[in-house]
Amino acid sequence: MGALDGQIVVFxxxxxxxxxxxxxxxxxxxxxxxxxxxxxxxxxxxxxxxxAVRPLVADIATWEGNTAAxxxxxxxxxRLDVFVANAGITDAARPLEDIPGERLPxxxxxxxxxxxxxxxxxxxxxxxxxxxxxxxxxxxGSFAGSNTAGGGVLYTASKHAVHxxxxxxxxxxxxxxxxxxxxxxxxxxxxxxxxxxxxTTADSVLDGTRERLPLQAIPPTDAYSGIFTLLASRTEAAAxxxxxxxxxxGLSVRGIARPGGRV
Length: 263
Description:
There is one protein chain. The protein is α/β, with parallel strands linked by helices. It has one domain: NAD(P)-binding Rossmann-like Domain (Rossmann fold, 3-Layer(aba) Sandwich). It has helices spanning 17-28, 44-49, 63-77, 104-133, 153-173, 209-212, 225-232; strands spanning 8-12, 32-37, 53-57, 82-85, 136-140, 178-184, 190-192, 201-203, 244-247. The longest helix has 30 residues, at 104-133. The protein is globular.
């Protein structure tokens, strides 16, 4: 018996990285998942994981993309229990002074459209179904949501906003829908950059990152799947709402002289 037996999930940003790993774990725990991504790579999940996954290529920065995802869950399985807003893009740690002023509005709109607006659109599209099932929402935040230098000015601001979304939505939707977040540090994946800044997709782990972490190891993408499973569980996380679970390899307690006391 799995921790998520019978639960129906919409999961955005499912095509790669942490999202893909969590979808695999959700299926192993008994859930059925509408796996959403803007990349067609998400279509591979159907053959890899079988009928428990319905992949969907969609732009979740649009209302239509989110309603299509929710409709897919309702059409295929007749209900929705969990909405996971995991999709996100980066600014490749671009500081404000390196962003041309004329590009700033477009770059802001693009990055906040995916990292902040998309979770709002998704929760709104799923809201009636989540209220009916007394389900839950999980939003992927970041170490940058409560610290500096986890990204550039746009990314850091967007992830701070995500932490605010978790808390405000948890308040607004209580007691019927639980809302929580996960704040990862680093993971070996590739992140899509901000097109308005001339960025493409790049590795998220830079040379020297491991040595800067208190735990002195780059966690694999599936290291976070247990946290997402916990938060989706109706029993194990029944008392949790408005929480953002930090999983940053100790970055937020990193020392000045040394990353950790015994390093």
